[in-house]
User: Fold YgiT-type zinc finger domain protein from Candidatus Scalindua arabica.
Amino acid sequence: MEKEYSDCYYCGGVVKERLVPREFRWKGKLFVFENVPIGVCAQCGEKVIKPKVAKDIDHILEVNKKPTKTIQVPVYQYEQNIA
Ligand SMILES: [Zn+2]
Assistant:
């Protein structure tokens, strides 16, 4: 089994695993992964990703696995859109 998360690096709080959506950039493109198991500090919200999870994600991107779905992402230039 995977080792439990150690206490938060920043504040010493308890880190608990949650399934969250997470964006990754790879070769200049944006990818979204849903239900990623990530350790989240209950105290400060710091997020920790296990090396194994990061490796799995790298692998999925490397083998060009077919995504569950593809979404379009709106892109804005902040400076030109100040109301
Ligand atoms: Zn913390």
User: Anything to note?
Assistant: The chain is about 15% helix and 35% strand. The mean pLDDT is 91. The two ends are 52 Å apart (CA to CA).
